[in-house]
Structure formats: C-alpha cells, structure tokens
Amino acid sequence: MLNDKKIIVVMPAYNAAPTLQSTYADIPVDIVDEVILVDDCSSDGTVEVAKSMGLTHIIKHDSNRGYGGNQKTCYKKALELGGDVVIMLHPDYQYTPKLITSMASLITEGVFDCVLGSRILGIGALKGGMPVYKYISNRLLTAFQNLVIGYKLSEYHTGYRAFSRDILQTLPLNENADGFVFDNQMLAQIIYAKFSIGEITCPTRYEDDSSSISFADSVKYGIGVVQTSIMFLLNKHNLGSSRIFDKLDNRNKPVNDK
C-alpha cells in the first residue's frame, strides 16, 4: 500500500526465465501488494521459474496472444484484485523496478493519472545500449506524434508505465490491437480521454537477455503509430471514426467492467 492505495505490478512475460528472478528481486515489496505474471505461451520454463519464486498470481496463455493481448489479461486481473495503481514492468529488466515507488507516488498523491518511465529524458539512451536505428526512429515518431496529437512527451514508446484505476476502467482496451502497437494506442487513448501524464527519467538497459522486437516488427509498429496518430486527429475533429476512440467521446461512462 502507498497512501492507502493498493499497488499492483503486472509483468507481461514471454521467454523471460533468465531474467525474471533478478527483476522480481528489485521490486519494492514494502509498497507493492500484488505481482501478476502473465505468460504468453513461453517455451523456456518461465512459468516454472515463477512458481519456484513463490509468485501467487500466475496466468499462462494456452496460445500466444501477442504483447497487447498479454497486457489485456494483465489489466483485467489487476482490476479484479482491486488495484488502485497498476504498474507494467517488463520481466527482462530492461527497466529498473527501483522506480516503482516514485511512479506510484505521483499517482497516489493525485499529481498524475499516468506516469511513464522515459528512456529519452536525459542522455542515457544510447549509452545504455539502445540501438541507433531505434533511437532515431523513436525521436522521429515522437516528434510526429507530438505534432499531430498536440501533446508533448519525450517518448511515446517506453514499456514502463503506471496507471490509475480510473484509466483502466475507462479505456476500451479490448478494441486495441493484440500486437506491439497496443502500447501506442493505449497512450493515445489516455491523451484523448484527457487524463494527465507525467514522465520520469529511466535508465536504459539493452543487454543480450533483453527482449527486443525484430526489424520487420519495428517497421510494422511504426506504421501502426502513424495510423493511430491520424485516427486520433480525425476523431478529435469529427472527420472520421475509430473504434479505439469512439467510446471515449462520452468520458463519464467507464466501458470496462470494474
């Protein structure tokens, strides 16, 4: 608990056996009430490692549902467990769990509805091993989205995110893609619904055991980001309609089950 709010960490996992234990070891258990691991049909014994660590909430998909599909399961379970603040933490230790307290505090204190761990704030992205082509594409796509969406973030592509319960109850997450572009669609929905977003600097870590999408998937993701931004703009000005934004036009009616 933090400020009388229940804190839940969700870990969308795929072949995370080598890094799961080290990631879990740095989670601040003094404030985190529950940890949920959703395994997306791994082949490396991720579930067995999780069980050996004593994790209570382990969900295993019978088939691979994709990164977005994994998150949908994560957030549904977190709401069922009564989470007030839900933090997505990748189990490959690309993002340090040591920032969880700071991220959760900004939400429980009512400062922001969503907090992002940004790899771009500061100067550590390339020094931390981020591939140059990913850094450049990150900067270009972020500049494009800031221009089209009319917001200002240092990056839209971090996988380290904390959400208030209100966000997860309000967003029509099941309308989003099951692939990697889910992250970007969710962030665009948060902005569209006028939730507040804060960012904190997050150290960058790219190692051999860090998960990473292929170049082909990166291109597909980039195209999805551009499409999401254009759909946002069209919906905002009533020039088009997209199912990922339509249900947010009536902001006061949560669309997810509590």
Describe this structure in words.
- The chain is an alpha/beta fold and 258 residues long.
- It has a single domain (7-246), classed as Spore Coat Polysaccharide Biosynthesis Protein SpsA, Chain A, CATH 3.90.550.10.
- The protein has helices spanning 17-25, 46-52, 66-80, 100-108, 124-127, 132-149, 165-170, 182-192, 215-236, 243-246; strands at 7-13, 34-39, 57-60, 85-88, 114-118, 161-164, 197-201.
- It has a 7-stranded mixed β-sheet with strand order 3-2-1-4-6-5-7, with helices on both faces.
- Strand 1 (7-13), helix 1 and strand 2 form a beta-alpha-beta unit.
- The mean pLDDT is 93.
Helix content: 40-55%
- Give the class from helix and strand content and strand pairing: alpha/beta
Give the CA-based shape. Answer: globular
Tell me the domain tally. 1
